[in-house]
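ok so dumb question maybe but i'm new to this and my supervisor (M.) told me to 'just get the structure for GRPD C-terminal domain-containing protein' and walked off. so i did the thing. is this what she meant?? sequence i used:
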Amino acid sequence: MSTIRNGADISVGTGTRSLSEISEQATIRVSIDLVSAARRHVGFLRTVAESQCLPHKSTLLEAIRRYDELWMPLICDLTVGSTPPMVLPPLDIEWVWYCHTLNPVMYKQYCESRFSKIIGKPAIFDEENAEYALMRCREIWNRRYPSETFENESDADVKDPVFVNEDLLHEVSKQRPLYLKFSEPHMSEVVYLIAARQRYKGFLYILQRLTDGCSRLVPTSDILLMWLTHQSYPTVYAGDVKEMEAEMGKVVGVWETVKDAEIEETKKLWERVFDLPYEKAGGGLDMDLERVASVNPPVYWEVSDTDVNNRYKSMVPRFLLEVCVFVRLNSQMKAMQKDKKSGFLRLRVVRCHRELKINKPISNFPLDSWKKAWHLYCEFGTRGVLLEHRSPGGRCFKGSSLQDSIAFLWNDLLRAASLTLGREVDQQVRVVASITPPVQAPYLLKCVPDRVTDDSGAMISDVILRMNGYRPQEGRWLSRTVLDHAGRECFVVRIRVGGGFWRRGGETPSVVQWEDRVMEIREGSWSYVAGSIGKAPEKVVGTAIPKEPSEQWKAMWYFSTGDELMIRWESSSAISGLSFQLKNLSFPDSSVTLLKGRKMQYEVKKISSESKNEECQNKEVEEKGEDEEEEGFVTLVRFTEEDPNGRATALLNWKLLVVEVLPQEDAVLVLLLCISILRSVSEMIKEDVGSLLIRRRLKEAKLGARDWGSVILHPSSCSPSISSPYLQPWYWNAEAVLVSDGADHITRQPAFSYSPAEGGDKLYKRGIIP
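this is what came out, is it supposed to look like this??
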């Protein structure tokens, strides 16, 4: 049996030319730092997308007037020769200017007819320099146009101007949703942009030499980003492509209709020149925004400038990357295309998720082109993917024997040209893997039952009694340990249930009043003194104190974060009759709401079951009612000036005590919400709906056996044969993914006993359900 190896690297691009060999002499010279320019480009599109004024028609029309009548004459007068001045206009004008430059032919005609030259844009990429350029522009503007405000102060009630530059209005209107094409966070990473620039150079090389007789070339998303960035600096772009203007007209524009034949022709040209798949991770070919929006993305990540959870040293950020694996057979494998017993390829990961085994028969792959075999998202902690060549030995894929294996490690791919590596398996099958740079993704946290503790945080145990000289342990608290996506202990949640001193056969437990049943979250992991017996960490980072609710509410909690949670329950509607209100007493102007169910980006869309992309997503959904599916889920939505329509910053399931938290949301607040809702519901319906009465650590799946969130399949890789809920987002089928192995067994066994020192069932039933 062969052992796992890295494999012999095949030349990345063994055709006419390698991508890494494309030099400035081999194609046109790009006279701008495309990497820095593209990074600012994505940031600018994000700012425009978050603007609350630009979508309004009145603002847009005024912006076009200001651009046409005021800005362009001003920038023309300030331009000396072909060098644009280091000034930047206000956002509304910059947006119109940007959209205008994305039509180079129209922009050139406009500039030459009005100013007899093309007006350029300054190359300002540093944020500090951009602020200075904007301030300098404001000073010049105020001197030249004292009656015109620098900022756009259009009034929605003002009538539309009589004359409108219709061409400009059309260009600006159609570019409005452009950010959706480049919103994935890896597109701002320098490593990704360096790879994209290299592929753009390869695209220009093909365009310059091999497009005679071809119709149009379709750029991938990474190449498109570089092309639009290049265009947005009009004088640079005009000078760089001067010798190949006709060829540039063969590139499919960002909003043009694309034919399948054009996509296939572009792929074949690229493969012929570079002997590489044209698509890659982070460089897809889906130009239809409506189609992209109709498919629920398997992961949700966004560009985030802040991580408020940095304050908690016990929380380790989670990083995700996108992975694509392409396969192509060597010429000697031609006979195997018809031979169903030729073997199969199995995809696994180096670390985590040991149960992951996705098989593809070798006979499925072509000789004449690259085929995407797997498309998935992996946590960086998985380290890489393994590809095994196996020969069948029994029925289907069972009893197979390993022939050869290769590994694609993330660290190797991050150092590779274009973030892409090619290798061979058994000198018969060629494989190319590509990735995107790892970027921070939402935190995943779950609470698991643990032992009962006393007031000091020590577990109730003879070990602790001996350590304390047999001094009785005071107070009784239910405990929950918070584990992150990798099974690390982050926090300990403690729920006060009883008071009084206890020793075996000694005093009778005393149930504390509802207002004394406080909850606390301590940062860090247990300090184990003997086996699984230990003490909770000392630092308290969050508390929840029950309060007497007003008449219309059934429960109320005050959090140390300054937030107040109120819960209402209509008994006639069962759990579905719950409603919540959350407000911050310290910041009354802040607005936050709790929505029942999986909302916004967490919504599990239901569309035609005939779609292959839907089969893995909706298999379980069809078997349950809508209310049952959503039960236990709550979406936390924050409203700010930047997000007046609200942004979902966390999803929690209070029945399972599981949360997904964006970096900009406080994980401790979300955990307090989760445990407070469960505690209140248990009190109201007189039922232990979330297994709060479990007072022992349950058996967890071994680390690496079925890690939730470590590997998520892209919808394009889903098939009926891949139905594991562990390859889907956890909230698509939360119970199957997250219920501990022993939970059902214990809750169905009332005879399961705890030690007298921990307190009997009556104490906890009275403490939770009086």
